[in-house]
């Protein structure tokens, strides 16, 4: 059974919001993960900027979230981005990314916590790490004195000034070690295998002789000797892999180069016999004995295992015993690992431990240790002086599985691993073809059989077999086929017994059933059943089959006689033999009375169903004539297909007569009769005339009268009823009818009724007179009538303005109780009506008049401000200034409340639609004057409480009404306006680098004027105050001038101004500081005044002092100047000046004869000194005005001198290894560069780089110094200092 496929079938399928035919799920998932990674990369970029003091303000300037604190900007920004992404992600329903609400909330909380931690000081270690990666790919750079960018790391790293390192190391004693990596070794085949055993030597001398001691497991000792020639051959072999193991064993990385001292070397000796090996003697080329590390090595045969089974058959039955064992070879204690599976389902991974109880072995104590530790213990702790019999390879048999089989299916046992006592492991890959590692057998279920019948009838028919079944209680019956079944048969008379044996193949198994047939009645017993491999169980299966006899029929007939006409039919008595229910088929033939052999008609076969052995059947035809009835077939419960009965044996022929029939033929029109009309009723006969009829008529008062009519020769007769004036129901009933034989007839319909109306109906209007209606709507005029049902009405409509115009109308199906619906005006007269077939009577009140209600209207009321146009539908109003109030008066007619619909077209072209409501006859429209220009008011319609908008629109569609729109034109003079022109200044006055004062934060940059104090009287150097005026010239202007320094204000009045003004005189009253000029009021020639000005109609004028510059000290922590003059610097220091004025500044300076111009946006001028030289400041200017320039050539206090950094280098190079014996010494030489006197500091550390000892050499006047050293360790310079500067390493 494939459980994986079942899980896949039952696994629910997630359907993404975006269908896969648009974008597959994998691409959706990749897109969303990439988007999340992009957001996090953006976050890392922002945190880099946030932690940089020079760039952190960018987060505030460029962010779409404006908080004053950059950290708060960062947190809010990414709380929103992360939260929106994680909250919207489950909406897309992408598989593997469709998280629950709880998981999403946890993710949002976690990301919020990370964002907050990153923005706080807690993130400094992480930020430092990120900054390190950032600086690796994007190194930090600074501006140097010559205006080029130099990487900052070049100045921070002073290691190029402190070069060289010498290592002094003592040479070690020689040593040798067998199997240095404590590896396990075993031989698969002791006759052909060779094990290359490594020996590690630690010696500065060459090897001369090596001797190995070999001890067999029977404690026999021999020696293996290797001379200098053998060793040289072994040393020449490639030992790269051994060196890799050496480095890995010591926890180091392998390098392709060898140690120059050649201290470590390896050889590999071939070992061919199992036993115990150890190094006995080793000599070097000086014939000095090399120290041997104790490390004995055991070589044993590799362990092995194989499966075997005592039963050769590969098939078992459930309940049988199984036994699976393994033969194992190796050194105990042994462990074998195997797998057991049933039906492709892994039950478990088992292991069997095998211990040799007859022999005591030291390996038992080592079980459970790591392999390396176990090998170390074996190599160093086993006493080789004792017997080694415990290390011999032995054979064992271990049972893996035994006991009864409880479950059917495929059983598989596989060997996977065997481990001996030394830890040697042999892994197997089982294959079906390898019987030693793979063993499989099938366990078959025990089937249970039961005997059944197929059709649930324990009878057998004559000449037909009976179907029986053997049912199997098993899930997959075909798999266990073929089946052998034994059935015992006993005849009904108990005289015959027989055993029936049947074999069923898989193709004969149908739905766990084994079908077979029997031909004889009797008792059938299931005795045994067996599948292909297993004997089955038998249930209480006994079936008794009886024989059913074929049915037979015996018929006796008797005629049905009538005293008056003779034979009218037949009565048949049917006698059956067989098993009910019975079915008898018969046919009826109508014959020619003159020739009985001639068949006129034949009816279809009919069937008689009898539930017992006796049945009575009567046959009487509907018409008179010669008939033959023949019984043709019989069936019972068991026999459904039998031969027909003998033809003609059960055929009965005779002439059958019929009684005369009579009855009313009812006409539906006679059901209802108008009062005073006549009625007639028709009687029809079917027989032989003459006829005699006796009938009775009862009137509505229940008064009856009998009538008799003789000698009716035809087959029809009509009863006439004249002048029925009595309203109600008349009943006509046949009492007696005789034909020529004076026999009674059969009545088919002997009773009819005639309904007579009580009186004639009347009709009139319920309310006469005149009615008003809304044109287009319907009015229902009530009617008075005593009619009992719907009527057909005739009426006329006369035009009241022209009586000659008359319309004739007819309504065919009108309910008078609901009244007459009218929609058009006119005089309505009732002419006549009918109720069913009865005409009605129109009463005197038969006329009403309908008229329309008056429609609403309006007109404009003239005033002194109203000018009539070309007609009453076109008007003009007197113009006025913007902001003034005015009204347009209208007079309304109709029924209040009124609804006025109009539009207002504004000067900008905007069309405003309005619908106002009022209950007064006079209505005023408020005139618009928000802005200047032409307004057009158009009145589109008027509606009232009677004629709604929908009613008016419907009349307009029918062309029954039209409203002529009224247009009113009105011009509004715009108010004059004034504004400062700040965006058309000449280039020399425009300052793109303007630094805005915080007090003028609301001003645009172009609205801030700056100049120097010295330029106030120089018109050509000033920026004019440009003012634009709109309206009707000339203008009068009022300005307000505010002085911030004195906190005072003054007003300036200007008159007779054109549309544009350039005003310079404003500067004459200004001093150093901030000044604000604002527009107060402007008036045009039309006396329209504007005094509503906002802060946008004001400018700021900032009068600055001349710029200044001073030198400040900013020495580098890593390269400190040692002179007393603060104007002296070292390479790597920053030369800095403080600036005062309006940034940006332009600074001209000279460095070593090279002139430079720098533009500075801050009030500090800093440059990194990256080479020696002299710096002189020439001039400075700021942004307050184009000519604010200060010459500084005579300022010696602004000069700066830069000195180079001293250097030291060891003559041995960057890294030098000196190997000496203890007691020798080495000379260390340092070369110095710089200006003496020098101070040198160097350090000695141990070979692990720890425990530093510092030495200082002072007042060195030469450029070279020598020092003797005899201690083991690393020697390197860490600090050099000359007359001006110093360099040092911060490591120590």
From TrEMBL:
Nucleoporin POM152 immunoglobulin-like domain: residues covered: 549-658, 880-958
Ranges annotated as spanning the membrane: 96-118
Keywords (A to Z) from UniProt: Membrane, Transmembrane, Transmembrane helix
Residue ranges of domain Nucleoporin POM152 ninth Ig-like in the record: 1124-1191
Domain Nucleoporin POM152 N-terminal transmembrane: 24-122
Domain of life: Eukaryota
Residue span, Nucleoporin POM152 Ig-like domain: 452-539, 761-846, 1220-1286
GO terms for cellular component: nuclear pore transmembrane ring
Annotated InterPro entries: Ig-like_POM152 (IPR056541), Ig-like_POM152_1st (IPR056542), Ig-like_POM152_9th (IPR056543), Ig_POM152 (IPR056544), Pom152 (IPR037701), TMD_POM152 (IPR056540)
Domain Nucleoporin POM152 first Ig-like residues, every copy: 175-299
Any single biological process term in GO: protein import into nucleus
Pfam families (alphabetical): Ig-like_POM152, Ig-like_Pom152_1, Ig-like_Pom152_9, Ig_Pom152, TMD_POM152
Molecular function as annotated in GO: structural constituent of nuclear pore
Protein's name in the database: BA75_03829T0
Organism: Komagataella pastoris (Yeast)
């Amino acid at each position: 059974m494939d459980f994986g496929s079942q899980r896949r079938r039952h696994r629910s399928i997630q359907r993404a919001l975006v269908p896969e035919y648009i974008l597959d799920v994998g691409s959706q998932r990749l897109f969303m993960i990439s988007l999340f990674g992009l957001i996090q990369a953006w976050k890392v970029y922002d945190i880099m900027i946030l932690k940089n003091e020079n760039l952190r303000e960018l987060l505030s300037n460029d962010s779409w979230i404006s908080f004053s604190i950059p950290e708060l900007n960062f947190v809010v920004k990414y709380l929103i981005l992360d939260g929106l992404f994680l909250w919207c992600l489950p909406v897309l329903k992408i598989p593997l990314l469709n998280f629950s609400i709880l998981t999403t909330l946890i993710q949002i909380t976690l990301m919020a916590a990370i964002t907050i931690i990153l923005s706080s000081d807690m993130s400094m270690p992480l930020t430092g790490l990120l900054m390190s990666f950032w600086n690796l790919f994007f190194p930090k750079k600074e501006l140097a004195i010559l205006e080029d960018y130099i990487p900052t790391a070049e100045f921070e790293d002073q290691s190029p000034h402190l070069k060289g390192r010498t290592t002094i190391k003592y040479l070690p004693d020689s040593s040798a070690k067998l199997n240095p990596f404590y590896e396990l070794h075993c031989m698969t085949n002791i006759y052909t295998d060779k094990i290359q055993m490594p020996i590690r030597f630690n010696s500065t001398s060459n090897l001369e002789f090596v001797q190995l001691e070999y001890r067999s497991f029977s404690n026999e000792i021999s020696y293996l000797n290797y001379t200098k020639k053998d060793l040289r051959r072994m040393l020449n072999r490639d030992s790269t892999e051994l060196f890799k193991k050496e480095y890995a064993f010591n926890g180091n990385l392998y390098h392709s180069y060898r140690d120059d001292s050649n201290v470590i070397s390896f050889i590999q000796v071939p070992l061919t016999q199992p036993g115990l090996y150890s190094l006995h003697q080793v000599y070097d080329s000086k014939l000095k004995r090399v120290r041997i590390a104790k490390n004995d090595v055991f070589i044993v045969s590799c362990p092995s295992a194989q499966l075997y089974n005592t039963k050769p058959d590969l098939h078992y039955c459930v309940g049988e015993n199984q036994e699976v064992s393994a033969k194992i070879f190796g050194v105990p204690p042994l462990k074998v690992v195997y797998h057991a599976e049933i039906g492709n389902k892994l039950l478990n991974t088992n292991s069997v431990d095998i211990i040799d109880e007859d022999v005591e072995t030291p390996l038992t104590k080592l079980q459970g240790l790591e392999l390396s530790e176990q090998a170390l213990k074996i190599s160093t702790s086993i006493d080789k002086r004792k017997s080694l019999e415990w290390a011999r390879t032995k054979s064992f048999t271990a049972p893996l599985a035994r006991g009864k089989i409880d479950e059917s299916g495929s059983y598989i046992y596989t060997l996977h691993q065997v481990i001996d006592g030394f830890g040697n492991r042999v892994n197997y890959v089982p294959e079906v073809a390898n019987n030693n590692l793979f063993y499989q057998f099938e366990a078959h279920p025990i089937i249970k059989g039961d005997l059944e019948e197929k059709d649930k009838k324990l009878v057998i028919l004559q000449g037909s077999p009976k179907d029986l079944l053997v049912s199997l209680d098993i899930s997959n019956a075909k798999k266990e086929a073929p089946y052998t079944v034994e059935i015992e048969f006993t005849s009904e008379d108990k005289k015959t017994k027989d055993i029936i044996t049947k074999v069923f193949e898989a193709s004969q198994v149908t739905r766990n059933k084994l079908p077979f047939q029997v031909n004889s009645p009797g008792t059938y017993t299931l005795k045994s059943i067996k599948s292909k491999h297993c004997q089955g169980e038998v249930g209480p299966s006994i079936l008794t089959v009886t024989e059913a006899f074929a049915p037979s029929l015996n018929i006796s007939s008797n005629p049905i006689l009538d005293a008056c006409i003779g034979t009218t039919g037949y009565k048949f008595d049917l006698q059956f033999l067989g098993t009910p229910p019975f079915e008898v088929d018969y046919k009826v033939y109508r014959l020619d009375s003159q020739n009985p052999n001639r068949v006129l008609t034949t009816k279809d076969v009919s069937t008689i169903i009898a539930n017992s052995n006796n049945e009575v059947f009567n046959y009487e035809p509907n018409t008179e004539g010669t008939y033959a009835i023949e019984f043709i077939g019989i069936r019972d419960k068991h026999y459904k297909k039998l031969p027909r009965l003998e033809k003609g044996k059960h055929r009965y022929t005779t002439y059958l007569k019929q009684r005369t029939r009579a009855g009313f033929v009812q006409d539906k029109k006679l059901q209802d009769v108008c009062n005073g009309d006549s009625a007639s009723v028709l009687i029809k006969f079917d027989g032989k005339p003459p006829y005699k009829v006796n009938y009775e008529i009862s009137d509505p008062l229940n008064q009856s009268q009998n009538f008799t009519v003789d000698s009716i020769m035809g087959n029809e007769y009509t009863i006439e009823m004249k002048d029925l004036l009595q309203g109600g129901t008349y009943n006509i009933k046949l009492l007696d009818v005789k034909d020529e034989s004076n026999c009674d007839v059969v009545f088919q319909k002997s009773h009819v009724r005639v309904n007579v109306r009580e009186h004639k109906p009347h009709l009139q209007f319920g309310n006469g007179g005149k009615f008003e209606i809304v044109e287009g709507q319907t009015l229902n005029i009530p009617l008075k009538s005593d009619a009992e049902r719907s009527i057909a009405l005739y009426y006329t409509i006369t035009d009241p303005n022209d009586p000659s115009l008359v319309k004739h109308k007819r309504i065919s199906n009108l309910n008078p109780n609901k009244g007459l619906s009218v929609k058009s005006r006119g005089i309505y007269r009732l002419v006549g009506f009918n109720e069913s077939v009865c005409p009605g009577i129109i009463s005197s009140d038969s006329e009403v008049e309908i008229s329309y209600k008056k429609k609403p209207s309006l007109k404009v009321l003239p005033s002194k401000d109203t000018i009539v146009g070309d007609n009453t539908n076109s008007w003009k109003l007197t113009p006025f200034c913007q902001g003034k109030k005015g009204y347009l008066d209208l007079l309304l007619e109709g029924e209040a409340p009124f609804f006025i619909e109009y539009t207002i077209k504004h000067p900008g072209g905007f069309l405003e639609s309005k619908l106002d409501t009022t209950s007064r006859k006079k209505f005023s429209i408020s005139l618009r004057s928000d802005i200047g220009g032409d307004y057009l008011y158009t009145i589109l319609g008027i509606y009232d409480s009677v004629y709604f908008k929908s009613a008016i629109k419907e009349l307009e569609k029918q062309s029954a009404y039209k409203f002529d729109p009224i247009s009113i034109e009105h011009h509004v003079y715009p108010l004059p306006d004034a504004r400062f022109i700040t965006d058309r200044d000449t280039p020399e006055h425009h300052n793109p680098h303007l630094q805005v004062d915080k007090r003028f934060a609301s001003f645009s940059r172009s609205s801030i004027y700056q100049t120097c104090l010295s330029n106030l009287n120089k018109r050509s150097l000033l920026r004019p105050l440009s003012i634009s005026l709109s309206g009707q010239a000339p203008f009068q202007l009022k300005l307000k001038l505010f002085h911030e320094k004195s906190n005072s204000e003054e007003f300036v009045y200007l008159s007779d101004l054109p549309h544009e003004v350039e005003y310079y005189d404003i500067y004459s009253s200004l001093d150093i500081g901030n000044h604000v000029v604002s527009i107060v009021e402007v008036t045009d020639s039309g006396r329209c005044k504007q005094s509503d000005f906002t802060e946008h109609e004001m400018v700021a004028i900032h009068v600055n002092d001349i710029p200044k510059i001073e030198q400040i000290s900013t020495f580098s922590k890593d390269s400190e100047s040692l002179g007393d003059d603060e104007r002296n610097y070292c390479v790597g220091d920053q030369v800095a000046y403080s600036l005062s004025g309006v940034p940006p500044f332009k600074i001209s300076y000279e460095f070593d004869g090279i002139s430079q111009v720098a533009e500075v946006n801050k009030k500090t001028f800093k440059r990194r000194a990256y080479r020696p030289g002299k710096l002189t400041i020439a001039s400075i200017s700021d942004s307050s005005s184009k000519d604010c320039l200060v010459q500084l050539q005579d300022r010696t206090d602004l000069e700066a001198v830069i000195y180079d950094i001293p250097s030291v280098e060891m003559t041995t190079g960057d890294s030098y290894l000196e190997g000496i014996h203890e007691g020798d010494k080495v000379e260390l030489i340092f070369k110095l560069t710089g200006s003496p006197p020098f101070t040198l500091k160097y350090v000695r550390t141990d070979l692990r780089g720890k425990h530093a000892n510092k030495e200082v050499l002072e007042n060195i006047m030469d450029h070279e110094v020598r020092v003797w050293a005899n201690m083991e360790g690393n020697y390197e310079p860490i600090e050099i200092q000359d007359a001006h500067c110093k360099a040092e390493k911060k490591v120590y």
